[in-house]
């Protein structure tokens, strides 16, 4: 074990990854301001759906979130340059965790992956070469790192792709229903649409997606297939970048390829003047306790979290219970409508509640399809009617991939009294 995990290898993959990582998160932070994402998601909405239990975590008032993201962008630049790296990566991780948990209307799996990798980077010696920290003599230059660092990234990427593949084994993916719907919304170009909506093409995309997720890591691990795998990865992620418009994720995913190549090859490509390590240096016990007692248990949690929906009653595609933190990426199209009825229990009067008045269009659409959003919003309604004896009833129907509309929420449940089950099935979410 010591010879495998703790031998010293060239640290070039980690150093190059730090530079790419810092650049990408800086682009993500400043890009969120430039594209209007910060304004739409964190400034304009009158009500923000945070993770349940973290309702106290709310966006800064006024234009505070602009400054918040500017600071994150500056932290990204500092990480890229290796300037006061430890302060920058800790600061960025805390701020990004705040963004991630304070809103879930724009939930995205790559946001979650970004948080995990940021967390890992706190503990890694990513500034020991090609950094201002070395140049300004805040730390000593090092040309090596323990092998377990590369292994950490490889295992994490394996988890992401494996569960993404497994999640695709359901009827609407296997018969191309969802990929057809997905591709139909990616372009307005008639020529491309004709190609995308061809049965053979969207079926190809469906099965290519499964095969890519299942095979990309094994193919990258072996020298004979590594180049082919990298080419496939470039094609896959560039297609996603162009047509699916999912921010930095395609480029972020590509950067993990660094850890699959021999460190010496990365050194020759990026750091030609860096001294070579002819033979791996045996036994580096630095940070051993972090690896054994902290990072390995964390990886174990990563393995089991995506499995939790199997312990929850109902189909996760329908109930959404166990969906987040599970690498269930771009799997289905979900539509719904919802109506809130407020009953005055003293007079018996029933009135409709206009939820559009304090929600953005995206929030309103998401509210109609997410049980946890519905429960949280009912709490907001209760606060609005504070001191009044009311009941809240809901008429909500959803469909999956343009299928039949079915009732999602029990219309007999009084949501003024409904409880939220954090770990198991909520009985007011109807099963079909």
Summarize this entry quickly:
The chain contains 19 helices and six strands. It is α+β, with helices and mostly antiparallel strands and 432 residues long. A four-stranded antiparallel sheet has the order 4-3-5-6, with no helix packed on it. A two-stranded antiparallel ribbon has the order 1-2.
Descriptive terms for the model:
about 425 residues, 2 domains, two-stranded antiparallel ribbon, about 10% strand, alpha+beta, four-stranded antiparallel β-sheet
Anisotropy-based shape: globular
- Give the integer mean of the pLDDT values: 91
Count of individual helical segments: 19
Note the run of SSEs as H and E. Answer: HEHHHHHHEHHHHHHHHHHEEHHEE
How would you explain this protein's 3D organization?
- The protein has 432 residues and is α+β, with helices and mostly antiparallel strands.
- The protein has 2 domains: 2-310, no CATH class; 333-432, no CATH class.
- The chain is built from 19 helices and 6 strands.
- The chain has helices at 2-5, 12-34, 37-43, 64-81, 85-102, 109-122, 132-135, 148-167, 171-174, 177-184, 190-196, 199-221, 223-243, 249-255, 263-270, 288-304, 316-319, 361-367, 371-384; strands at residues 8-10, 144-146, 334-344, 350-353, 390-400, 406-407.
- It is globular and about 85 Å long.
- The chain starts with a helix and ends in a 25-residue tail after the last strand.
């Amino acid at each position: 074990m010591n010879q495998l995990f703790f031998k010293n290898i060239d640290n070039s993959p980690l150093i190059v990854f730090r530079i790419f990582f810092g650049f990408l998160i800086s682009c993500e932070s400043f890009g969120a301001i430039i594209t209007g994402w910060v304004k739409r998601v964190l400034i304009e909405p009158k009500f923000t759906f945070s993770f349940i239990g973290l309702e106290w975590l709310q966006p800064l008032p006024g234009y505070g979130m602009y400054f918040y993201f500017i600071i994150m962008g500056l932290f990204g630049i500092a990480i890229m340059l290796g300037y006061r790296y430890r302060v920058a990566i800790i600061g960025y991780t805390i701020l990004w965790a705040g963004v991630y948990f304070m809103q879930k209307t724009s939930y995205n799996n790559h946001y979650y992956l970004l948080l995990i990798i940021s967390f890992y980077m706190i503990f890694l010696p990513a500034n020991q070469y090609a950094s201002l920290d070395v140049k300004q003599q805040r730390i000593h230059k090092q040309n090596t790192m323990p092998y377990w660092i590369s292994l950490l990234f490889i295992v994490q990427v394996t988890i992401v792709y494996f569960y993404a593949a497994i999640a695709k084994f359901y009827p609407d993916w296997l018969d191309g229903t969802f990929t057809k719907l997905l591709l139909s919304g990616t372009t307005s170009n008639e020529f491309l649409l004709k190609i995308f909506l061809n049965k053979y093409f969207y079926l190809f995309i469906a099965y290519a997606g499964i095969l890519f997720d299942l095979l990309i890591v094994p193919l990258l691990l072996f020298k004979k297939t590594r180049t082919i795998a990298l080419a496939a990865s470039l094609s896959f992620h560039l297609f996603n970048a162009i047509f699916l418009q999912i921010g930095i994720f395609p480029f972020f995913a590509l950067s993990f390829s660094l850890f699959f190549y021999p460190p010496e090859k990365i050194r020759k490509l990026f750091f030609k003047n860096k001294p070579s390590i002819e033979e791996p240096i045996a036994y580096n016990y630095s940070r051993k306790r972090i690896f054994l007692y902290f990072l390995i248990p964390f990886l174990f949690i990563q393995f089991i979290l995506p499995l939790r929906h199997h312990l929850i009653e109902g189909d996760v595609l329908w109930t959404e219970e166990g969906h987040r933190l599970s690498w269930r990426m771009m799997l289905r199209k979900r539509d719904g409508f919802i109506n809130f009825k407020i009953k005055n229990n003293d007079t018996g009067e029933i009135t409709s509640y206009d939820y559009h008045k304090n929600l953005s269009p995206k929030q309103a659409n998401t509210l109609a399809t997410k049980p946890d959003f519905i429960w949280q919003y009912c709490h907001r309604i209760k606060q609005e009617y504070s001191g009044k004896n009311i009941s809240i009833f809901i008429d909500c129907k959803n469909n999956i991939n343009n299928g039949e509309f079915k009732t999602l929420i029990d219309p007999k449940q009084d949501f003024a009294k409904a409880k939220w089950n954090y770990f198991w099935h909520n009985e007011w979410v109807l099963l079909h």
